[in-house]
Write a structure and sequence with these properties.
The structure holds two protein chains of two kinds. Chain A is mainly alpha-helical. Chain A contains 18 helices and one strand. The chains are: A mainly alpha, B alpha/beta. Chains A and B meet through α13, β1, α15 and α18 of A and β2 and α28 of B.
């Protein structure tokens, strides 16, 4: 039926893409040249700031820990001002003073400081007396580098926008192919219909003629379509097949009892992880404070919400619910999404801190979820599967020294998995 | 044939091979359910099956919506699932213990010992461990009461203040009646109160009084105080009726000191020698090297004889007292004299004259300043019997205007209780601060319930200069108010007790070094402040008239009383009965009698035979114009011609668990010269014809006549450290060799039976990967106090099953303290002469005792694991025998195959079954379930369970080490039983860690082939010949006798 075999089709597609891309490139090249020029300006060194990778990494760590809950690296206002271009707006020595102890600067009567303070509704910025000059410079270096990256991203964005057109062009191409295929199908159906018509016409014609017995038999032959279906062999096969399907479905559904993959209940407050963890990139541990300390990751208490929402979006009806809860002195009753049975002991600290497993590993792409959904089945098979595959993060942790030594002596170069150190034993999770 | 092996037995029924016992011992389980459980027919069963299938499939359609409710405002120090520990103080009922309270999500769930205290040094007792359950007791009052009806707090206060003002005008005296108050600031609060209402007098008394010692010390040294004893320095200990390891004064402290002198190993090859003269077999008597049985009427004369012996030797004047024929007195005197300055004589008598003689003995032996310290006396008991009797007389005369009962319940626990109950209505203002409407409080006009001690600030001074602080670990559960706050309110002081406490400490205890805030924070953190812990004890001057005391003793005691005598004693669990409404304590098998849920009449075997009494026959005991009907329990070691009844039972208003359990024995207490005497010289016993079954656990889970406990005398041990060990032998290549030791080095490894195994993965390096958990229990330091049992029950959510289920042999304790009696001498089994039988009878009457804690032995070749059809019990690579509840289907094959009988089956869903409402109502309510440990699964019906070596604690300790990126340190993972033990008899640890205590204790030797072997000669494993290779090891019991 197919007109083209696979390699040929691919070839055709590639030719189409290539030619369209070439045409687009031809017209868009001036735009590229324009965008590239400012990028060169942006990578310029800022005097007094060390823009080495190590410093930027250190700065990023500090920024995530200390600054991110109030400041964005873009020009967006979170609680405090967005930090895009802050090095152009302010002098470095002023910034050092301000970041370390903004209140002292305000009280000293510094006009810029006072103006800034009043501009942001007299919200006090936390003092960071423990940060050294180098620390603050590292943070600023990170802010600067993030700024640069934004510009690059913007440039990329522009490029991508144009690339998009190309993609659209190739999209046209594929719908073309479909149209051809659909046309072919229609033609074939028509051919079939015509053929059937001819057969019936010929049969009718032949019936009206005087034909010998044998020929008549052929002409009048009726095909009994149901005969094979009534045969014993067929019924047995179908019966067995049916039973197997039912059994499989039955076992599957039994195995699924209590498995709530995909469970996404409506919460009393429409909290969006997509916004908080995705868009604003607030670290998971900022709210789930227990994740490195113990068994429970902790659903954040209302006072953690208030760290930011004491200022931000106070008027939103969803956030008003938090205020109402605090006023009524009634805790918020969230609906539990991930329910482990009582007889299973699961400890977040073991997995997140010691095992260095990302939250997403079990919880799915939480930063893209508007409403939290259970992504993993949380069955024992699923746990065991991971324990079989996961290699223990033993480097740099003295606890595992003896185990590692033993493993190397007995298993050679095979990496040491959780299973190898007893991760499948009952009492690791059941007691 | 002469058999040299000792004969051990757990109960007389085992010794005499009672038919019922033999029948029961054949079966692991009492197979047949009781009649009421058997009401289900086959048809019913099918119906239930059909229904439950339908119900299950319906229920499976939609999982229930569960809520996750975070804090509204999370306190910084609380992280859900992470426990917090707060130092506090347990000071109740004359017992002191410095503790750490483990809280989870803000609720106390476990009590642990505080190692910073130099008094209790991290030890605890069964009662201390169990006290946490009292917090969640719904029998506590939930608000103020007036005339038996709930009342408003402010209104009650106003009425009390009005009443107090009216009382002031009446001109009659008023009383604050309390038990011993160890708290200095509470005493200051009462002083403030009396300052405001000067017509008040403070009277304190103790249910089990130590007035005799207090009075004797006043006479001997001019100090109304209890001395602090140091048993750890004593080489010879003589106790006349003092149960100092179980119930006398400060048992946790004494037990630790005592155990120090009993430990052997390494270079230490000597231990103390302990003589006990007593009537009924006590915990202390059970640990003695020499135990003599005396009548209560002989007690004074025994002390006098000891005094005369010592006095004669040191050239002091003797006293004239009738001679008394009691074995071992002369021997004890000889040993005491040999250990001058390093000995200790104590007496449990409440007779001041007897105690003066005891003081004189200790003085002559120069024990003051070494084993006895009176310069920093103990304050655990301060009650004054005479003052209390005067108060009762005043009340009877109607000469009392007001009375406030604080922390006391005299209507129940005093011999004059009934008279006081009659007199109370004559008093215009009666107030009780009891936490429940108990026997006394229910007769008072007002009850202003006190907080539970875990809800309140408090302090204690158990010993002069040793301060201890208590802090609240939970918000008050009910609308109660701390008694001290009540006193301050009524005195119109306008200050809270917390502020008062702080200012008291600032003024009187804080020495001005550093800031007070720092000092306070440190004390709150540590729980104790002991500025004088290092000071040396002084030697006081003895001033009492020994002759006068001696002559009074001679008059008061007789050597040959022919009547039946009664002695009253306290049980280790229930004590004086103040905490009786605690199902854990009620179900705690008494270490000696192994009886639960009752008190009873202990009689000696010879007396029972003579009177034709059988165990369980109900008798009526009459004395002092009071009589009770109680069942008979035949108690080996009971002095002939005496009976014993435990105090603390027969509560009527304590709560559902304690009400009408046993009979009250306090009315049997007699009074002599103003002091309470816990004995009667003449009682009459009548058979009633009724019988009553006592729920005893002693022969449950029996292990028949196998060599389970191994012991030797000190002399034998000094000659051969492996003395007393039993070495099972097998025949290899026609040669009889010891299973574990004498395989010649050149013999092939496969001939070593220890290394032969049926299972895969049990090769000799199987447990060498990282940790190899093991436990060592020193039978020489284990005193049988049962603190571990309650510690385990709390930690592991072990259910309470109630009396009937204990009778059905279905108790659930994961750890049991096996108590074995044994013959003193080897018996010629061929000799059928009368004299030989008599010889057999005598030791059965006064046997030696061995305690052996028995829990899952975590066998490396575990018989239980092999027979489980669903692999619910498996072995871990760390040597643990794991039990997976959710996999268990309840075949009970494992328990049947366990040679140690340590597996427990859940016959019911104990925590959610109305039939257990009366037994343990705490577990049936959400409030009571708050005590459950959230890290341990609550087992359901039809599931097997057993000791897990506290795997949850092991896992937590490992996690903490991993989080810090370091190796696990020895002592970080402690089992609950080890933590609770006051004598450090249980050592748990990693046998692979050469630095660990267990490694050193067992003298583990590692071989090049990866094998590891125990070389400590005292170490033995129970039933070694089975080759099940337990990870629990015992050290032989050594007795210091000739």
């Amino acid at each position: 039926m197919r007109l083209l075999n696979k390699p040929n089709r691919l070839m055709l597609t590639r030719i189409c893409y290539a030619s369209i891309f070439l045409i687009v490139m031809l017209f868009s090249s001036p735009a590229w040249a324009q965008e590239v020029a400012p990028q060169d300006n942006a990578t310029q060194e800022v005097p007094g700031l060390d823009m080495s990778e190590a410093t930027i990494a250190k700065g990023k760590e500090l920024f995530v820990g200390r600054c991110q809950s109030c400041h964005a690296v873009t020009d967006e206002v979170v609680i405090g001002p967005g930090l895009k271009g802050v090095l152009e707006r302010r002098e470095l020595p002023w910034l050092l003073k301000w970041i370390r102890n903004s209140q002292a600067l305000i009280q000293s009567g510094d006009p810029t400081a006072v103006q800034l303070y009043n501009e942001y509704n007299q919200t006090q910025m936390t003092s960071f007396l423990d940060l050294s000059d180098d620390d603050i410079k590292a943070i600023l270096a990170y802010v600067k580098s993030a700024e640069n990256q934004q510009q690059e991203a913007a440039a990329d964005g522009a490029a991508q926008a144009e690339g998009g057109e190309a993609a659209q062009a190739s999209g046209l191409n594929s719908s073309y192919l479909t149209a051809i295929l659909v046309g072919l199908v229609i033609v074939l159906v028509l051919v079939l219909a015509v053929l059937l018509l001819i057969v019936s016409l010929l049969t009718r014609f032949l019936k009206n003629q005087d034909l010998p017995e044998e020929d008549l038999e052929v002409v009048n032959e009726k095909i009994d379509l149901t005969a094979p279906f009534r045969s014993k062999a067929f019924l047995t096969v179908v019966g067995v097949f049916f039973l197997l399907v039912v059994a499989k479905a039955g076992i599957d559904s039994l195995m699924d009892v209590g498995v709530q993959t995909g469970y996404a209940p409506t919460q009393p407050i429409a909290f969006s992880h997509k916004l908080h963890a995705g868009k604003y990139q607030i670290d998971c541990q900022y709210c789930h404070t227990g994740v490195r300390k113990g068994k429970s990751a902790n659903i954040p208490s209302a006072n953690i919400c208030m760290n930011c929402h004491g200022e931000i979006k106070r008027g939103s009806p969803e956030i008003q619910k938090i205020y109402a809860a605090i006023e009524k002195n009634e805790p918020i009753k969230w609906v539990r999404v991930h329910n482990l049975q009582d007889f299973v002991y699961f400890n977040h600290a073991q997995h997140v801190q010691v095992g260095q497993i990302e939250c997403q590993h079990c919880h799915g792409e939480i930063e893209k979820m508007e409403v939290v959904q259970q992504r993993s089945p949380l069955t024992m098979g699923w746990c065991i599967d991971c324990h079989r595959k996961t290699v223990v993060k033993a480097e740099g942790n003295d606890y595992y020294d003896r185990l590692l030594q033993f493993h190397k002596a007995n298993a050679g170069k095979k990496p040491m998995t959780v299973e190898d150190i007893g991760g499948l034993e009952c009492s690791k999770c059941h007691y | 044939m002469k058999e040299k092996q000792k004969i051990y037995w757990k109960g007389l029924e085992e010794l005499t091979n009672d038919t019922d016992f033999v029948k029961k011992s054949q079966d692991e389980f009492p197979e047949f359910p009781t009649a009421e459980e058997l009401t289900t027919s086959r048809r019913d069963f099918l119906k239930f099956m059909g229904f439950s299938l339908a119900a299950a499939s319906l229920a499976a359609c939609e999982a229930p919506v569960k809520k996750a409710i975070p804090y509204l405002n999370k306190p910084e120090e609380i992280d859900p699932s992470v426990p917090n520990y707060y130092a506090s103080t347990y000071a109740q009922d004359g017992e002191y213990c410095s503790i750490l309270v483990k809280t989870r999500e803000g609720r106390p769930i476990k009590i642990e010992g505080n190692e910073l205290s130099s008094i209790t040094k991290g030890g605890t007792s069964a009662r201390v461990q169990a006290s946490v359950l009292g917090l969640y007791d719904l029998s506590r009052l939930q608000g103020f009461m007036e005339n038996g009806k709930a009342a408003d707090m402010a209104a009650v206060d106003q009425k009390v203040i009005d009443g107090l003002k009216k009382a002031a005008q009446s001109g009659k005296p008023a009383y604050i009646v309390s038990s011993t108050i160890m708290s200095p600031s509470t005493k200051a609060v009462i002083a403030k109160f009396i300052e405001k209402y000067p017509f008040f007098r403070h009277v304190s008394y103790d249910a089990v009084s130590a007035y005799g010692i207090l009075k004797a010390n006043e006479r001997s040294f001019g100090k109304y105080a209890l001395p602090a004893y140091d048993f750890s320095k004593a080489e010879v200990i003589v106790s006349v009726g003092a149960d100092f390891l179980g119930t006398w004064l400060s048992p946790i402290e004494h037990a630790r000191q005592y155990a120090q002198t009993r430990k052997l190993g390494g270079d230490k090859k000597t231990m103390s020698r302990h003589y006990q003269f007593e009537t009924t077999l006590s915990l202390t008597g059970a640990n003695a090297d020499y135990r003599s049985r005396i009548r209560p009427s002989q007690e004074g004369l025994v002390v006098a004889a000891l005094y005369n012996g010592v006095a004669q030797a040191v050239g002091a004047p003797t006293v004239s007292a009738p001679a008394v024929k009691v074995p071992h007195i002369d021997k004890a005197v000889k040993d005491l004299l040999a250990a001058k300055g390093k000995s200790l004589v104590v007496s449990g008598s409440n007779d001041p004259d007897v105690q003066v003689l005891v003081n004189a003995i200790n003085y002559l032996l120069e024990n003051y300043g070494s084993t006895i310290d009176l310069s920093r006396p103990s304050f655990v008991k301060q009650g004054n019997d005479e003052e209390f009797l005067r108060f009762v007389e005043d009340a009877k005369k109607g000469n009392v205007s007001a009375v406030i009962f604080y922390n006391t319940n005299p209507v129940y626990d005093h011999v004059k209780g009934a008279e006081l109950a009659k007199a109370l209505p004559k008093i215009a203002l009666t107030v009780s601060t009891a936490d429940r409407a108990d026997e006394t409080a229910s007769l008072c006009r007002f009850i202003t319930p006190d907080h539970h001690y875990l809800e309140a600030w408090n302090d204690a001074e158990p010993r002069a200069g040793f301060y201890s602080l208590a802090q609240p670990t939970i918000m008050p559960l009910f609308k109660t108010r701390q008694a001290q706050d009540s006193f301050l309110t009524w005195a119109e002081e306008g200050i809270s007790f917390y502020e008062f406490l702080r200012s008291y400490w600032r003024k009187n205890i804080y020495k001005g070094e550093g800031s007070f805030e720092d000092f306070w924070t440190k004390v709150v953190h540590d729980g104790v402040y002991e500025p004088v812990a290092e000071a040396a004890a002084e030697k006081p001057a003895f001033t009492a008239d020994v002759q006068e005391a001696g002559s009074r003793v001679a008059r008061r005691y007789t050597a040959d009383n022919k009547n039946i005598e009664l002695v009253l004693y306290q049980k280790v669990g229930i004590g004086s009965g103040a905490m009786a409404n605690n199902p854990w304590l009620q179900e705690l098998p008494d270490p000696i009698t192994k009886a639960t849920w009752d008190n009873y009449v202990c009689v000696s075997k010879s007396y029972a035979e003579q009177e034709g009494l059988k165990q369980g026959d109900v008798v009526k005991v009459t004395a002092n114009g009071y009589s009770v009907e109680l069942p008979v329990l035949i108690q080996p070691g009971q002095a002939p011609g005496t009976i014993a009844i435990a105090l603390g039972y027969g509560r009527t208003k304590a709560g559902k668990c304690a009400n009408n359990i046993g009979k009250n024995a306090y009315p049997f207490v007699s009074i002599a010269d103003g002091a309470l005497v816990y004995a009667q010289r003449q009682v009459s016993i009548e058979k009633t014809g009724a019988t009553y079954e006592i729920a005893q656990t002693q022969t449950h889970h029996t292990i028949m006549a196998r060599p389970i406990v191994q012991e030797a005398t000190l002399k034998e041990y000094q000659k051969d450290p492996a003395a007393g060990r039993f070495f099972p032998a097998i025949t290899i290549e026609g040669e009889k060799v010891n299973v574990n030791r004498t395989i010649p080095e050149n013999k092939a490894e496969e001939l070593n039976p220890r290394l032969i195994t049926l299972w895969k993965g049990h090769e000799k390096t199987a447990y060498r990967k990282n940790h190899w958990w093991g436990m060592v229990i020193d039978l020489n330091s284990c005193i049988g106090c049962s603190a571990c049992l309650i510690g385990c029950q709390t930690e592991n959510n072990v259910p309470v099953v109630g009396k009937q289920e204990v009778i059905n042999r279905r108790e659930m304790h994961w750890i049991r303290i096996d108590r074995y009696y044994s013959f003193d001498e080897s018996i010629d089994t061929e000799d059928k002469s009368y004299a030989n039988y008599q010889k057999m009878e005598d030791p059965a009457d006064n046997p030696e005792v061995v305690f052996q804690p028995m829990m899952c032995q975590h066998c490396n070749n575990a018989p239980c694991e092999t027979v489980c059809p669903v692999v619910a019990t498996t072995h871990s690579s760390e040597g643990l025998n794991q039990m997976t509840y959710n996999r268990c289907i309840g075949t009970r094959y494992c328990a049947n195959n366990c040679p140690f009988k340590v597996r427990r089956f859940n016959w019911f869903n104990y925590t959610n079954d109305e039939r257990f409402q009366d037994v343990n109502y705490m577990s049936q309510t959400d409030l009571g379930r708050m005590v459950l440990n959230p890290d341990v699964t609550v087992r359901s019906r039809g599931v097997m369970e057993k000791c897990s070596l506290c795997v949850q604690r092991i896992q937590l300790a490992k996690l903490e080490a991993k989080r810090a990126g370091r190796k696990l340190r020895d002592g970080e993972a402690k089992t609950a039983c080890q933590q609770a033990c006051p004598t450090d008899a249980i050592v748990f640890g990693d046998m692979n860690d050469p630095e660990s205590r267990i490694h050193k204790l067992l003298n583990l030797k590692e071989f090049d082939n990866g094998d590891i072997k125990i070389t400590e000669p005292r170490a033995f494993q129970v039933l070694e010949e089975y080759n099940v290779r337990p990870n629990v090891t015992y050290l032989t019991k050594i007795r210091n006798k000739d």
